[in-house]
Structures are given as structure tokens and as C-alpha cells.
Design goal:
Number of domains: 2
Strand order of the largest sheet: 7-6-9-8
Number of helices: 13
Structural class: alpha+beta
Strand content: 5-15%
Distance between the termini: 28 Å
């Protein structure tokens, strides 16, 4: 595929993307169109994305039979998505993917210069076309449900969000200005250069209205969940921790108070293995011997003050070798495993000492004591909002289900579009053509 320069609002920041193939080559000749009346032979009943092996078409116009075809309905049988909406959702998935992983696309087995329907994706039994199509429909179903819930609750957009929406149809808005600056006669031509000739400004407005409203409503759920988490007392946080104990355990978050320790780090020296980054065995042996020597030296005067002085003199840890080796007030998930396990031994008492090996080297340890801080509570607070909001999204999605018919889906292949003349490819620094990526997980 030979993509022209496009603009994309991704992750709340304007990014100018160049997805054009090397050189000013012309796109490949269009292949035979697969209009809705002549679908590719279905390979299943249409309930999932493998219904068709190829969804691409090379002919489309706004509101024609193909673009107007209903491809999804809600629980009441009302139209929820057409091919024109799919056209935008599908290519946004592709553009977002390329924005994040474009330079590594080959590692995923994706070659943008070849038809996506002919390339197996990283998802089992899915072509890249099917991969992006499935991702687009799942994401849209979620946004559509959030939109419905917001409308049902009389939720209103902020002035800024409404202004972004109104800007789309504004003849003096950013899309119109971007079109003029990029050499297009109309804003609609500018839009179609990105998404294909099967969409118009009203289609885009309707899509973005659902998109912005869904995202805004999700943000309101997150805001409330965050406030609730911040206000939660220890009993509530403890109960949440217990409900998700397995996940917290996997991340080494334990329901105990923070501790403070001092340490002296002795690192191995020598040339590291270029593949593993590890040091040779003799370097580790030498580091262990050096650690034993420093430990023995400290034991001649086994006080905390002497330990701190030796840490400032001997430790290789730049984060603590000017503060007496002090690692202060940390929780169980802060340090590497071996360091943490020694520090949070329930039997540990002031003045306990020892030597611990980690991937960084040998640590001569001195236990200072437990603090009053309960760092696990903040880690629970940080996880709660996302968990709570996403659970609400699942409930909302179940309340407003969307049923897709993949046999009716068609996607215009934008690689068949003629290149914009070289003198007309200037891209403005900001554009509202492509909305920012959703903050809601599609998974």
C-alpha cells in the first residue's frame, strides 16, 4: 500500500505521520471490486471476522448501496453501524497501529505494501485485514454502548468537546483549513483522501460524536472511580486487596508496612556478555570476595554509623552512596526480588545484617526498621479506578449489545487512490481529521 501523508490526533497529541512508501511511486492498479452484491464466499455463518477471506473493495461513494449497508444492529434490531462508519473505524485501527509500531511492522509479519487480506497476522487464523477489522468492530461496540448510556443519562459534553465536534462541519474549521492548505478543493476531498471516497463530512461527524461522547463518558467514570479510591479508608482498600490478592501477589505487593534499610553494593567488574549482559563467573566470584571483605571490615565496628560511612566509601549504588547507603521507606514491590525478600522477612529486626546477591551484584545489608507508611495502600488506590471503570464498561456493553454481520462488511482499499500531486501534499501542523485514540481498552 502506498499511503499519502496523513494527519492523526493520537494519544491526545498531534502527530504528523508519513506512511508513504519510499519514493513518489504511483499506487498499484486497482483490483476487481468486491461490491456488496457480489460478496466473497463466506467461510462461516457470519458471526465472526473469518466470515470472509477478503473484505476489500475498490469502488465506493458516500451513501451508495455498499456504504449504506447495515452491518450491525442493537438489541432492538436498530441499525448500529454501516460500512461508512466501518470505513473510518477500520482505517483508524490501521493508522494507530502504524503510528505505534510502524518501524517494527516487519517483526509482526506486516508488510503495508501488500494487500492486508493476503497476510497472516499475529492473531491465530486471522489475516491482517481481519485483525484490524475485528479490533475496529470490538472498539466501536464499546464506544457505541458508552454513547447510548451517556445519552440515556442526559450526559453533556464539555464546551471544548462540543467545539471539537462542531468544528467538523464548520466551513472555516480546522478540517476546511487543512484541506485548503493541503491543496484539496473541499474538506470532503481532504477527508476522503484519508478514509476513502465512501464517506462524507456528515458520516465523519456522526462517527466522532459517538467517539467523543463515549470517551468523555468513560473519563467521567474514571474521574468518579479515582475520587472514590482517594477517599477509600484502609478497611475498604484492604477488602479490595483481598478480592484481588492473586494479582497483587504476582506483582509482589504485600499488605505490610514499608521498611528502611542501608546497603553497600559491590558490583562485578569486567566485560559483559553481549547477548545476556551477564558478567563471567570469575567476575562474580571476585565481587563476592570483595563483599565479604567489606562486610568483615564493618563487623570490626558493627554500628549503623560505621555502615553508613563504608557505604559512602565503598558502595557502587549511585542512588545511595552519598546518603550512607540508605534506601528509605520502600514497599515490597519497589526493589528486586532478593533484596525485597531479605528486607521484608517478618523476623527482621533493627541491626540485622547479611549479604544478598541480585542481578546488580552483592548487597551488604543493614536493617534499619519498619516505617509507618503503608505503601500497598497507594498501589491499591492506583489500580482501583481502572478496574472499577472497566467493570462498569463491561456492564454497559452488556446493557447495549451490538450484533455484527461480517458477511455484509466491506472496506474500501485506500491504497487504490491516486497520489495527491507533489505540490499539494503539504500537511498542516494540526488537524481534526483523525480523532485521538480511545482511552478505553478494546480487550
Amino acid at each position: 500500500m502506498n499511503f499519502r501523508k496523513i494527519t492523526a490526533l493520537l494519544l491526545a497529541a498531534v502527530m504528523v505521520l508519513s506512511l508513504t512508501a519510499c519514493g513518489n511511486t504511483q499506487p498499484s492498479e486497482p483490483t476487481e471490486s468486491t461490491a456488496a452484491a457480489e460478496p466473497t464466499t463466506p467461510v462461516n455463518d457470519g458471526s465472526d471476522v473469518t466470515a470472509l477471506s477478503n473484505y476489500s473493495i475498490t469502488e465506493a461513494a458516500p451513501h451508495d448501496a455498499v456504504m449504506s449497508a447495515v452491518i450491525a444492529v442493537d438489541a432492538d434490531g436498530n441499525p448500529a453501524m454501516t460500512n461508512s462508519t466501518l470505513q473510518m473505524a477500520y482505517w483508524l485501527e490501521f493508522f494507530n497501529f502504524m503510528a505505534q509500531y510502524g518501524s517494527y511492522a516487519a517483526y509482526f509479519g506486516l508488510d503495508p505494501s501488500l494487500p492486508l487480506s493476503e497476510q497472516p497476522s499475529m492473531a491465530e487464523n486471522r489475516s491482517w485485514e481481519q485483525y484490524f477489522l475485528e479490533s475496529a468492530t470490538k472498539g466501536y461496540a464499546q464506544q457505541y454502548a458508552l454513547y447510548r448510556e451517556a445519552v440515556a443519562g442526559n450526559y453533556t459534553l464539555t464546551e471544548e468537546e462540543q467545539a471539537t465536534l462542531d468544528d467538523i462541519l464548520d466551513p472555516n474549521g480546522s478540517i476546511a483549513q487543512g484541506a485548503a492548505e493541503s491543496g484539496f478543493a473541499t474538506a470532503e476531498e481532504y477527508l476522503q483522501d484519508t478514509f476513502g471516497p465512501g464517506v462524507d463530512l456528515q458520516d465523519y461527524y456522526d462517527y466522532v460524536e459517538i467517539y467523543i461522547t463515549g470517551n468523555s463518558y468513560y473519563s467521567s467514570l474514571m474521574e468518579k472511580a479515582t475520587k472514590d479510591a482517594e477517599a477509600a479508608d484502609e478497611a475498604a482498600l484492604s477488602a479490595y486487596y483481598d478480592e484481588h490478592a492473586e494479582t497483587f501477589a504476582q506483582n509482589n505487593v504485600q499488605k505490610v508496612n514499608n521498611v528502611s534499610v542501608r546497603h553497600i553494593l559491590i558490583t562485578p567488574e569486567g566485560e559483559q556478555d553481549p547477548n545476556t549482559g551477564d558478567y563471567p563467573e570469575e567476575a562474580w566470584t571476585a565481587a563476592q570476595e570483595a563483599a565479604n571483605e567489606v562486610y568483615a571490615q564493618w563487623q570490626n565496628d558493627p554500628t549503623e554509623d560505621n555502615f553508613a560511612a563504608l557505604a559512602n566509601e565503598k558502595s557502587a549504588d549511585p542512588g545511595s552512596n552519598t546518603t550512607g547507603g540508605l534506601c528509605e521507606d520502600f514497599d515490597t514491590a519497589t526493589m528486586v526480588t532478593e533484596f525485597s525478600e531479605w528486607s521484608f522477612d517478618p523476623a527482621r529486626a533493627y541491626g540485622d545484617s547479611g549479604i544478598v546477591k541480585t542481578s546488580y551484584g552483592y548487597h551488604i545489608m543493614f536493617f534499619v526498621g519498619q516505617t509507618e507508611t503503608k505503601g500497598w495502600m497507594e498501589r491499591v488506590r492506583s489500580q482501583m479506578p481502572q478496574e472499577v471503570a472497566n467493570a462498569q464498561v463491561e456492564e454497559i456493553a452488556a446493557k447495549y449489545p451490538v450484533v455484527f454481520d461480517y458477511t455484509q462488511m466491506r472496506v474500501f482499499d485506500v491504497s487504490t487512490l491516486a497520489e495527491v500531486p507533489e505540490e499539494s501534499t503539504a500537511v498542516p501542523e494540526e488537524s481534526a481529521v483523525i480523532p485521538e485514540e480511545s482511552t478505553v481498552s478494546n480487550g
